[in-house]
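Retro notes, item 3 of 5
We never archived the inputs for the N-(5'-phosphopyridoxyl)-D-alanine complex last cycle. Fixing that now. Sequence and ligand:
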Amino acid sequence: MSRIAYVNGQYLPHREASVHVEDRGYQFADGVYEVVTIVNGKMIDEEGHLDRLWRSLGELRMDAPMDREPMKFVMREVIRQNGIYNGIIYLQVTRGVAPRDHPFPKDVRPALVMTAKRLSMKKAAKTAEQGIAVITVPDIRWTRRDIKSVSLLPNVLAKQEAKDKDAYEAFQVDDDGMVTEGSSTNAWIVDQDGKIITRPLSNDILAGITRASLIAELEKRGLEIEFRSFSVDELHNAREVFLTSSTSYVLPVVKVDDHVIGNGQPGSISLDLREIYQEFMLAAE
Ligand code: PDD
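Structure as it came back at the time:
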C-alpha cells in the first residue's frame, strides 16, 4: 500500500506532499505537533493528545485548523488510507503561509499536515527485553517545554549525541543538575527503596500522555509515585531507570552514561510497568 499524506484538505501521495516555502513552520518553527500511537488498529489516548494539541495552540495564540470532530475524522482517514495496524500518526499545525515577518500575520489560515507510518511491535519488544542505554546532556531548551512545539533543534542535537554514543536517548539536565526529561521521552527512576519517582509537571517538561496514562494505571492499583525532580547522581545510582513516550511505551534503561543500572538487565518494576501499560493499550476502544 503506498503512503498517503494529508496536506491542508488533500490526501496526496506521500512522495508528492509538500507545503509552501513561506510556511511559518518552515521559517520560524511557528507550529505545534502530536504523535499518536496506533496499536491493533486503535489510537491510544486520542483525546489526551487532542487536548494537548488544543492547549499548545492556545498557548501560542494559534487558531485550530478545524474543529475536533472533523480532525478525528481526518486522522481515521489517514490511518485507513495508509493501512496502519501498528504504528503512529503525526499531526502538525503551523500558523500558516505568509510573507516572512516575525509578528503574527493577519487573515492567515493555519496549516494542517498529517502523516502515518508503520512500526514493528516485534522490534519494540526486543528493545524492551534488552533494555537501552541513555546519556545525560545539558538542557539547552527554552523555558516553555510544556508546549509541544516543532522547534526541536536542542532535542535533535541531544538525540544525535545519544546516537553517536550508541545510546537510545539523551536525558536533559537543568542548571541545578536535575534531570528534566529525555529528548523525546519522559524520565523516571526507581530508587533503592523501590520508590517510583518522576518530575512533576511544570513548564520545564512536556506533559507526556504516556506518563499520564501510566500514572492513572498505577494509581488505580494503589501504587505510589513520588513527584519530584531527581539529580544526575540519583539517576546514576538508581535501582531502576525507565522512560515513557508514545513511540517507546515504557522502556527499561540498563545503562546511564558509564553507570550500569542494577545488574545490567531490565529491572523487574520497569518490566511490570511496561506490562501494565501494554494491557492498558490492548484495552483501547
Ligand atoms: N515525543 N518529552 C518530550 C520532549 C517529547 O517530545 C515527548 C514525545 C515526550 C513524551 O510524550 P508522549 O508520552 O505524549 O509521547 C516527552 C514524541 C513521541 C516525538 O517527538 O516523536
